[in-house]
Write a structure and sequence with these properties.
two-stranded antiparallel sheet; 2 helices; about 20% helix; alpha+beta; globular
Length: about 140
């Protein structure tokens, strides 16, 4: 199945439909198998102890899986998360951006399920794993 939105189109969509995210997240790569999204880590994403906060990692996973779905179905702004689970496995490094490697496990007419593995940039072991289910509105 050919992508309906590439990385540039997804970033443009985020910029217009979610301007509050500008400068925080970017889709770096999107193809039929994998989407990679980046969280540009700043002081606002850190918690005491010099690590990236759980809510920041969750937001990255949410953006990654959401944009992976849109890359396949087009700009459907009202697709919403209906279920989410995240496992925090390692302390992310405060001085590094985070990357989410996302794969869609199921893409149906009304539900989509995706998984994101989150890594500190340049590190090979994941810091978190997240799975999410989205509801896709009727078109």
């Amino acid at each position: 199945m050919a992508l309906k939105m590439d990385a540039a189109a997804l970033n443009a969509f985020l910029g217009t439909d979610f301007p509050q995210l500008t400068g925080q997240f970017a889709v770096e790569h999107a193809d039929e198998e994998l989407l990679i999204a980046r969280l540009h880590v700043s002081e606002s994403h850190l918690r005491p102890g010099g690590t990236v906060s759980g809510p920041s990692m969750f937001a990255l996973a949410d953006v990654a899986i959401y944009t992976a779905i849109l890359s396949n179905i087009g700009p459907v702004g009202l697709a919403v998360t209906t279920n989410a689970s995240i496992d925090f496995m390692r302390k992310p490094e405060a001085g590094r951006d985070l990357l989410a490697h996302c794969r869609l496990l199921k893409l149906g007419r009304v539900l989509a399920v995706g998984e994101a593995m989150i890594f500190s940039d340049g590190q090979e072991k994941p810091v978190a794993r997240c799975s999410m289910t989205y509801s896709i509105p009727p078109r």
